[in-house]
């Protein structure tokens, strides 16, 4: 009869609605889990790169440095890419900057960053290797003149005194570390919230 048809139609609509809701919940859970997995991968990558470099850096104490001497001492060979599987030799000028550390009164060689010492421990500043040596020399001269112009500046030293050098800029400061970990943390929190809300909705609908 007509009432049976209406009831069957209502049941069919309810089943379709439940099926659609179930599919939506499944997609939401998958999205939440995917966000958590991505954030874990980002944590892992940051842990083996940025965090490790941050923990290994010994130049942790912010100090004041006063310029003693800034000179271009010699040139070093380097290589630059000129295309796929193509490398050419060039040279760069080596700028040496010696400073006086205000807190101790000692003389130290200044490096631009932590990486500068790894590339060439004789140079305070190393320009990007390129085919035009004159451009590299011009850039180094600008840096040298800036040091001579601003003779008092902030620097970072080793509080333990094991390193006989200081650095001008920290590549991996606590501020950089915070901003790098902020977005993976937001993604992880978002994924957890999505999964928790879906599970709570399923529990309340029982």
From TrEMBL:
It is found in: Membrane. InterPro entries: K_chnl_Ca-activ_BK_bsu, KCNMB2_ball/chain_dom_sf, KCNMB2_ball_chain_dom. One of its GO terms (cellular component) is voltage-gated potassium channel complex. N-glycosylated. One of its GO terms (biological process) is detection of calcium ion. Belongs to the KCNMB (TC 8.A.14.1) family. This is Calcium-activated potassium channel subunit beta.
């Amino acid at each position: 009869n007509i009432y049976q048809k209406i009831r069957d139609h209502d049941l069919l609509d309810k089943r379709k609605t439940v099926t659609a809701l179930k599919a939506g919940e499944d997609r939401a859970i998958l999205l939440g889990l995917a966000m958590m997995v991505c954030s874990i991968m980002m944590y892992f990558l940051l842990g083996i790169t940025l965090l490790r470099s941050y923990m290994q850096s010994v130049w942790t104490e912010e100090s004041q440095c006063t310029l003693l001497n800034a000179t271009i001492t010699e040139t070093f060979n380097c290589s630059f890419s000129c295309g796929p599987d193509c490398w050419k030799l060039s040279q760069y000028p080596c700028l040496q900057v010696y400073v006086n550390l205000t807190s101790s009164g000692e003389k130290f060689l200044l490096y631009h960053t932590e990486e500068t010492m790894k590339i060439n421990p004789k140079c305070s500043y190393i320009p990007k290797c390129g085919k035009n040596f004159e451009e590299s020399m011009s850039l180094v001269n600008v840096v040298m003149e800036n040091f001579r112009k601003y003779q008092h500046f902030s620097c970072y030293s080793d509080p333990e005194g094991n390193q006989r050098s200081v650095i001008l800029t920290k590549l991996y400061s606590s501020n950089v570390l915070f901003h790098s970990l902020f977005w993976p943390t937001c993604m992880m929190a978002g994924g957890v919230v999505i999964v928790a809300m879906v599970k709570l909705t399923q529990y309340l609908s029982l």
